[in-house]
User: Fold this.
Amino acid sequence: MSEIPITTIQQLLENQGFNNTDKIKLVRHTDKRFPDLYNWYCSDKDKFFDYFKRQEKAVFSKSDFVVAFLGEASTLARFIGIYKIKGVKPIIDEQGGAFQYDLEDVSGFENLKERVIIDWGKGTTSWHQWYENEKEVVEIKFRPDLNYKQFKNYDDIILNYSELQEIIKHEYKDWKIPLLATNAIYLILDKKEGKQYVGSTYGGNGIWGRWINYAKNGNGGNKLLIELTRLDKNYANNFQWSILTTLPKTITKDEAIAIETKYKNKLGSRAFGLNSN
Assistant:
């Protein structure tokens, strides 16, 4: 955690040149109806911003700007940008009547996006408030680390695509060291269809060396996963990585594949899943 003087998000933004003379709303995005909202922002921003722009009530209609946050644990919230309201129109869609806002990302605050954490306030239930309600900055992160979760042990590994990408991109030591240290039989779950892919790692770079390939494109070069990600560029957001069992660092390719085959048979991942061989 970085050491910073206590300040408010208002002071921080105004020091960056934000003009507070307009009508401005603060918005903390968290919604019990959509528990994957945070993950939408991390891995499918189009879906997140479709949610953001569509409001059942005209909550932004008297505002010129929206200062937006993602809800985090307890009363924390992460700054994700300032958006100018360029217009609004009533709509009727499959969910019913609503208001569709035209939002424009305001430039100049890129160095603060996803890094500033505020306290929304205890006992504060409203997810949208006027700018005059000061919010204390509790942390400015060195890097965004939107998906960062601490490595605990191999059995506890459950990673979605955006989490895997971030771990590989930033080479977090608490992940890289144990993933380099061992090989494994791993499982990829397609959460949309319920199908499974079983894979194995072998060689000197362990799990880390294999999962780097998945972080690049989501499919890791596997035939059936390639087909899914070719049809839908965002399909990898449905995948989840976990470890079935660890293997020695010195295991040979033939030994690892023999154990992999046993797990394929146990889970039926060839007959009913995503293994093509």
